[in-house]
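Quick one: structure tokens for this chain, please?
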Amino acid sequence: MEQDNIMYLQSKLNKNYIKSKFRSKLFGGLNHDDVVNYISNMELEFQKTEQKIRKDLADQCAVKVALQMELDALKAKIAEEAAQREMEISELRDENELLKNEMQGKDKALQELDETFGVQYESALAEARKLEEELQKLQSEREVLSQELQLSQEEKAELLAMTEKLHQLQDDHESMARELSLTQEEKAALQGKADTAVLDEEIQRVKSETEQELMLERAVSGKLMRDLENANLMLRDKAVEIRNLENQVQKEKIHAAELEMTLREERNKLTNMQINGLKDEVSGIYLLLDELSQELAQNKEDFKNRLEQESQRAEAAENMVGELLKLGTDLRDKLSGERNLIDTQLRKIMEKHEQIVGDASGILVNFGDYKDVSSHQ
């Protein structure tokens, strides 16, 4: 629009246009009033155009200042957000480093705990193997004692048989005593009838032999009974000892199994905690860092785009202001040149007008003189 006005003004300044718009005077040249009115109108239009250009320039400068202030505020805001993001990322990195160190400490503690449980487990296994060897040894002794018990039972059976035999001998002794009593009675009945010396000797011999056999059987039976009682006591003691050892071995086996189960549970727990917990924590941290990095990158990209847009707007405004300034300068120079041209033309017109007026005055003077001369003639 401004360029159209300028082109219009330029066209109006054209010499041919000026000549076509001005009326000619009687004796040549341009009409003075038309020229003055034209110059006044042109100056008024130039002033209006210049004021409008100045107003547009002021508006553009105000827009440029506002855009620059907005751009500076946006840059400050984005710089503040970037600094805040950098601070958050730095804090997260520090927190990640602390978590990493903490997890390394936990890992080291888990390894030490695993080694401790491993030592305890190996000790428990060694104790269990030792108890198992003792159990096997006791089982061997038990088998030996069982064999001895079996032998003792056989001896007991023999002793019982000998006891029965002893009872039988006692019965026989009693029977023989009864027979001896009967014999004595018969002896008393036969006294005087025959010689009893031989019979008494025989009876005494049989009685003595019977008593000796009975005493021998009693001694053997007593010894066997004492041996049997001692064997029974020994077997009972060994059985109690074997039961105690079996209970102890069973307790040690249960304790070893509990230790092994506890160790396995602790290993599984530690492994799960080490794998899952650490993986979840580290994954969460890395995901958070990725999100923050992506957000920071997006913010940087948005800031870059907005900065480019604002720069383009500022550059466009600067270009527009520059063009307007150049246009105003060119127009001012053009108007100054045209004004100088018009002034030059006006001076020439005035000079020509003065010359024409002088010539006309001379002609009129000469014509008056000529008329006076004619009237005198």
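The domain at 2-370 is CATH 1.10.287 (Helix Hairpins).
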